[in-house]
Amino acid sequence: MPAVLHDAALQALLLEDAPYGDLTTDSLGLQGLTGRVVFAARQPMTVCGSEEAVRLFQLCGAEAHVLTPTGRHVLAGTELLAAHGPAPAVLLAWKVAQALVACSSGVASEVGRIVTVLRAAGCGQALACAGPAFPGTRAWMAKAVQAGGGIMHRLGLSESLLLCPEHRLFTDEHSLDDTVGRLRKLQPQKRLVAECGAMEEALALAASGADVLQLERFTPEAVRACRLALHTSRLHPMLVVSGGVDGDSAVAYAEAGADVLVSSAPCHAPPCDVEVRFSRDV
Fold it and tell me: Which residues form the Quinolinate phosphoribosyl transferase N-terminal domain (predicted)?
């Protein structure tokens, strides 16, 4: 999988960490010395970010190459990437590169874990991950989700229609049919997703023509009841379940009738433990 962070974004990460240079390295006078660094997994993980980490070392003036590409499932001890060059270069890139691989691999590994649980139970539903946990992380977060076998729920406000209760608060002078109809008329190529928090709301939105119902914080039992009520009413929107979906509950939601599972759990997954081994050229 190619790098998704361009050079300017990677340079910005380096600049954030060392806006005026590496004070310790510069003070030690390490110019003229060279060394090698290897990243390795300390635990089983789904690897992500090795391509961006390699480019960070290259931007700092070192030679570097990927040993394990993004998307690979590895055991503890597997080497992920290697870099060689001037000591100031490898020391400058080290921490930023390690953090990027650790955090993105943490997300990818949690996505992979939930997908594995679903498939082991015979559930084929897609796992979609909600937006990034923190602004500015969208690109590598989307890469990590894909590396783990998931899909992104939404990539932003510009590419999908999601009608929320907060929108409807400002359109209460119009009927629900009028609101849905307006969105369909102005965006005819987009499927309309409507967020709902109760059974009655879901039925009303489906009757108004919503293509997808995003059921917020429904229990598995409530999802099953909603599916039955929609079927009885001869309404057949896609059901997306969001809120409370994680590795412990994913199968229950899938078996209750959800078509797509949306989870923010991977976005808050702890970083993976990435070992960094340095050696000095003699």
Answer: 22-105
